[in-house]
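F.,

This is the one I mentioned.
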């Protein structure tokens, strides 16, 4: 089963109590989902170098599809009181293995064999990282129709954003049905 790496956006930074529930929840015991805990005082969030990271979960999930992986984490996240998924995104920086997964095309040999293939991004360490946008553009120039954002990711992100928008809003069932949504 493939492993899918993505960032799940949550409705709020985790509180110390939520982090404790998260850390002791069987659904997250394998370490495939991680978070950054901010300061105890929410007023100090502005002093965190990247406060947006406090509303992100880094996920590496084994699932048949990306949509299944996102749905699994979003469902399990509801086990933590007050926390819910509100969006999802892919990061631009990828390994060739991740780029192969996203494109559905073998890319591991392309850098050595293909003129004009994007060079690795500057970095540190032995692993080479690439810009997904540059790889997608290179594939498009070579006749491969690879969307910059996979359909599964778009569907998951839109569904989570809609669910968040509907949270606590009283929408009549007839209106939901007229919009093509299930009336729950």
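My design for it:
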């Amino acid at each position: 089963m493939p492993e899918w790496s993505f960032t799940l956006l949550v409705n709020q930074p985790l509180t110390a109590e939520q982090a404790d529930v998260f850390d002791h929840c069987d659904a997250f015991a394998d370490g495939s989902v991680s978070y950054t805990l901010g300061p105890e005082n929410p007023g100090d969030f502005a002093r965190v170098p990247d406060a947006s990271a406090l509303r992100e979960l880094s996920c590496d999930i084994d699932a048949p599809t990306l949509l299944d992986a996102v749905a699994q984490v979003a469902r399990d996240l509801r086990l933590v009181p007050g926390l819910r998924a509100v969006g999802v995104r892919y990061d631009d920086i990828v390994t060739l293995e991740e780029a192969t997964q996203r494109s559905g095309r073998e890319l591991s040999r392309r850098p050595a064999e293909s003129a004009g293939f994007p060079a690795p991004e500057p970095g540190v360490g032995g692993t080479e990282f690439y810009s997904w946008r540059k790889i997608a553009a290179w594939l498009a120039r070579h006749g491969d129709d690879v969307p910059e954002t996979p359909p599964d990711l778009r569907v998951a992100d839109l569904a989570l954003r809609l669910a968040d928008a509907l949270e606590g809003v009283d929408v009549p069932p007839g209106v939901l049905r007229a919009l093509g949504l299930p009336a729950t």
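The helical segments are 16-23, 66-77, 96-103, 110-113, 132-141, 151-166, 173-178.

Talk soon.
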